[in-house]
Amino acid sequence: MEQKKQKAVAWWLIAGVVMIIIQVLLGGITRLTDSGLSITQWRPLLGVIPPLNEEQWNKAFDGYKQIGQFKVLNNNFQLSDFKSIFFWEWLHRLWGILLGVVFAIGFAFFLLKNYFDKKMIKPFIILFLLGGVQGSIGWIMVKSGLNDTHLYVDHIKLAMHFISAMILACYTLWFALKLLIPEEQRISDNRLFYSSFIIVMVVFLQLTYGAFMAGLKAALSAPTWPKINDQWIPDGLMANSFFNDKINVHFMHRGLAYLLLILLIGWFIRAGRSAGKNAVSILSKTKWWPISFIVLQVVLGITILLTAHFIVPGKFGTFETFAELHQLVAMFLLLSMIVNLYVVGKKAE
């Protein structure tokens, strides 16, 4: 019975991971449709209710008219145009509230049914804190664009918002894995564990630069491959910022992708050797996930660059579809490495 209780909690946590993935994808659509600044007020709970009449819609639209994005880019917007961008930001926030509700209801149910034990208390406290931090960073990000000087949210704050969501997803998944995977299905290989950890850190860095690419809208600055605007190494590489310069961000994002591909090929070979020494370990299956995702991710990244010319402001087309797939596979890559990091484990000192 105890094992059944743990599995029930674990699958509830995994459902939360799935909801976080959907939340991030909705955030991606919000960004790609330039909808993120349409709601200019922070109402964590009341925000679930959209404007219900013409007066409320006009009030919300008037709030949007006060910021630079409307004044410079969208001053031709009518109320119908505003409603279309409002929808995606509202849905993104609504899903975030639903995520909190699902977590709260599940937590209350399992608590009343006595499914939790003492070792779960600390992880749940951390989950609550991470969820709160994630929502707060989201508003800080939005607020960075609610002025006359910025047309979009700050790309560094966008990256912080995205990475905090990924940390929350990874921690939730790790918690679930501890309840779901029997100890005998894990292995102990320090070398593989540390190499897995390094790859996870590189993936996080790559995701950060992916967010920089998105926030800076850098795709059109170098829509070429394999070279970056006919150059292998951009001019002024060392003279410009690696955090704000679009071309340098391109260079870093592409370079990290190639590095990850090389690292994961080596990791895959090592993981195959370790899996062969333990017939009951699930590593023989899970080792395939990261290598498959990185190959697909590289292909999608190249496709995005070559379809950047099809970008039409305010429209969700070919480029935007591939961009969403790129973001989805990036999350799968990270989470697959988290699974393998847990499966590999570390020898006790």
Account of the 3D structure:
This protein is mainly alpha-helical and 349 residues long. It has two domains: 1-180, no CATH class; 183-349, no CATH class. 69% of the residues lie in helices and 0% in strands. The protein has helices at residues 2-32, 54-65, 68-73, 79-112, 121-143, 155-180, 190-216, 246-276, 283-286, 288-306, 318-344. The longest helix has 34 residues, at 79-112. It is flat. The two termini are 33 Å apart. The model has no long low-confidence stretch (mean pLDDT 90).
Low-confidence stretches: none
Q: What is the makeup of the main sheet?
A: none
Shape designation? flat
H/E topology pattern: HHHHHHHHHHH
Helix content range of the residues, please?
Answer: 55-70%
Tally of helical runs: 11
Count the beta strands.
0
Q: Proportion of β residues?
A: under 5%
Class by SSE composition? mainly alpha
Layout of secondary structure:
Elements: H1 2-32, H2 54-65, H3 68-73, H4 79-112, H5 121-143, H6 155-180, H7 190-216, H8 246-276, H9 283-286, H10 288-306, H11 318-344
Quick gist of this model?
The protein is mainly α and 349 residues long. 69% of the residues lie in helices and 0% in strands. Helix 7 (190-216) packs antiparallel against helix 11 (318-344).
